[in-house]
Prior knowledge:
Blueprint: H1 2-8, H2 13-25, E1 28-30, E2 33-36, E3 39-41, H3 43-50, H4 54-66, H5 68-74, H6 87-90, E4 93-99, H7 104-117, E5 122-128, E6 135-141, H8 147-154, E7 159-165, H9 171-174, E8 181-184, E9 187-190
Antiparallel strand pairs: 1-2, 2-3, 4-6, 4-7, 5-6, 7-9, 8-9
Helix pairs in contact: 1-2, 2-3, 2-4, 3-4, 4-5
Amino acid sequence: MLLIVEEYFKNFPARKKVAELLINLGISVRNSKLYLGDVDIPINSVAEAAGVNRKIVYHTIEYIEKTYELRSIFERIKPHTSLDVVAPIMGWEVLEITFKKGKFGCSLERIFKIMSEHSCEIRQIIGERQLIDKSRVLIVIEKPIKMEVIGDIRKIEGIESLTIHTSEMDKKKIVCSFCKVRYCPRKVSFK
Length: 191
């Protein structure tokens, strides 16, 4: 979707910033207004968040509405809830995986197979396949993930990094002998 924005807004860098912000926050454009779900969002707030003046936001909305392809996309955008931020508070863990370029799909299939074999209880999956940057997926898991699962996932070709965001306070439970680990009460990183 960001490639479409890139193409249509390539000559309008300030409008592009606004369009990217709308997509990233899940703000839709309908009837010359901005909506987060069914809530009307003030132009001033979007302008401030994008670092542009209100006029740029109005021009962006106008351009989106007069361009059929953009209007078709932006009027359907919806916000989504991401549980990764509240997961440690809920006692859940988040497995964050970044992939080498071009390895997202085949690696993802193997990850889910491993997790299924170990009966990992997945609460939410949020992923994005990037064409330019590294692709990544966040997997919110209801119970602490076993180190053997992490070990099996690390062996999959195409994985660049693996990070566990956890609320686990007992360092001995999450640090293994074969990994380089950075620890804090909420984050463990295997790179």
